[in-house]
Design a protein that fits this description.
It is a single chain. The protein is α/β, with parallel strands linked by helices. It has one domain: NAD(P)-binding Rossmann-like Domain (Rossmann fold). It is 46% helix and 15% strand. The protein contains nine helices and seven strands, in the order αβαβαβαβαβαβαααβ. Strand 2 (35-40), helix 3 (44-55) and strand 3 (60-64) form a beta-alpha-beta unit.
Length: 258
């Protein structure tokens, strides 16, 4: 198994790595031997996740930044390159719907802010860190976290910037796959369904009918456990996935099958 998924000697950069899906992907990669740079807004969770990674015997760096802000995203990427070095794995995980506003009532400033969070951040981290990968000449892995809402619209909820941005992430991933394949860099996307992350649990408390409706349409009958995504990210980050690029992998308990 170590031969299939061994990440010893690799460095990974993960946005939104302090909690939820980002935390579980970070821990899965660290358990396989990777050193991890976590990028997130300041919080106790960021510190705690870094400490957990270090307890596994791996290095962990924390980069405090609001990835919804393009200037802060660029600064975090350049700081990471200056202080840590080139990365072998980049996981663009940050994102979220955050608002439940109908399209006809959604103002332009909020639209742009949410597009920066869900799409521009993926572009910037890929461009800056991917360029360094190309210059290093040793290949690499780009993993973009999209959503099943890149494929289907969410029921009974506003904030359609989310569907729009995540669909764009899938196409951007395909362009990276084509453009960077000659450099030994793969680019793939993960499309999670609904997982029991902190934001979704908050939605469950404030909008229980929405979450209940989604879960009712999942053949497996439950939200995903954030730990479920760790193994998939580990596969895409490893040499076992060397011939997979441009793919969009759905992990949703069967929701998009019905």
């Amino acid at each position: 198994m170590n031969g299939l998924f061994d990440l010893r000697g690799k460095r990974a950069f993960i946005t939104g790595g302090s909690r939820g899906l980002g935390r579980e992907m970070a821990l899965a990669l660290a358990a396989a031997g990777a050193d991890i740079a976590l990028v997130a807004r300041p919080s106790d969770a960021l510190t705690a996740t870094a400490e957990t990674i270090r307890s596994l015997g791996r290095q962990a760096w924390t980069l405090e930044a609001d990835i919804a802000n393009p200037e802060a995203t660029e600064a975090a990427c350049h700081r990471a390159l200056d202080e840590i070095g080139t990365f072998d794995i980049v996981i663009n995980n940050v994102g979220g719907r955050r608002i439940n506003i109908a399209t006809e009532d959604l103002d332009l400033a909020t639209w742009r802010e949410m597009m920066d969070l869900n799409l521009t951040s993926t572009f910037l981290c890929s461009r800056i860190l991917g360029k360094a990968m190309i210059a290093a000449g040793t290949g690499g892995r780009i993993i973009n976290i999209a959503s099943i809402n890149a494929l289907v619209a969410g029921k009974g909820i506003g904030g359609r910037h989310y569907e729009t941005a995540k669909a764009a992430v899938l196409q951007f991933t395909r362009t990276l796959a084509v453009d960077w394949a000659p450099h030994g860099i793969t680019a793939n996307a993960i499309c999670p369904g609904i997982f029991a992350t902190e934001p979704n649990l908050k939605w469950q408390r404030t909008n229980p009918e929405i979450i209940a409706g989604i879960v009712a349409d999942i053949p497996m009958g439950t939200m995903g456990d954030p730990k479920d995504i760790g193994a998939l990210a580990l596969y895409l980050a490893s040499d076992s996935a060397r011939f997979m690029t441009g793919a969009s992998l759905v992990i949703d308990g069967g929701y998009t099958c019905v």
